[in-house]
Amino acid sequence: xxxxxxxxxxxxxxxxxxxxxxxxxxxxxxxxxxxxxxxxxxxxxxxxxxxxxxxxxxxxxxxxxxxxxxxxxxxxxxxxxxxxxxxxxxxxxxxxxxxxxxxxxxxxxxxxxxxxxxxxxxxxxxxxxxxxxxxxxxxxxxxxxxxxxxxxxxxxxxxxxxxxxxxxxxxxxxxxxxxxxxxxxxxxxxxxxxxxxxxxxxxxxxxxxxxxxxxxxxxxxxxxxxxxxxxxxxxxxxxxxxxxxxxxxxxxxxxxxxxxxxxxxxxxxxxxxxxxxx
Length: 278
Ligand SMILES: [Zn+2]
Hints:
With 278 residues, the protein is α/β, with parallel strands linked by helices. The protein has 2 domains: 4-221, TIM Barrel, CATH 3.20.20; 246-276, no CATH class. Helices cover 42% and strands 13% of the residues. The strands form 2 sheets. The chain has a 5-stranded parallel β-sheet. The longest helix is centred in the C-terminal third of the chain and has 21 residues, at 224-244. It is globular, with a radius of gyration of 20 Å. The protein binds zinc ion. Zinc ion is lined by residues 10-11, 74, 78, 128.
């Protein structure tokens, strides 16, 4: 199985942290990588207004679209209206899942219109909180959007006429299969940026522009094998979440950590009795 890593930037709004967004662009330019970006058509989420609105926002997005960056519609207002988990059960909150078809279709069509009025044609949907349901998918195809940046499988797949491009990573990491690293520019620190830069430098051959990945990789049909991959990912995620809430485990992981992989292995073994102690 081929390993490919692509990148996506979430929460792109006129009020985002401009300096950070520019730093991403500079890094991606250095390595000639073009990411997918999720633009909120009509942001009403105060958490995404970290700076005064950028007057030239839509011109910037248009410029990036012309440069080959892929533009996704990141919800409509980015306001969570309920506690539905949606199809992926990624989070217990949603802007879309749990809402009737007509209303969802209306939100998507209005979002598309706003973006079109600025010359932007979103070909992807990026659900806020990764939450969407069957009505969202029907509403997307009714509005001519056939790609979703989400899914837990090892490869992109097609289900109900929609292509799902897996996105399970929140930090740059090498992983089996085809995956997307989901990054939120508003929250990034200097260390995050230098980690990203050194990650790409070290793994440049695995990192690909989002547009190149979608033209190179044909999604497979959704079947039992894909369903099993997604279920496995969900179980692992739940397991990790449980462990992260366990103090003894956290203590063990901290004490036995090392940058050096071999040393880390020995430290993990050495400190193992710590976990068994009552
Ligand atoms: Zn978001």
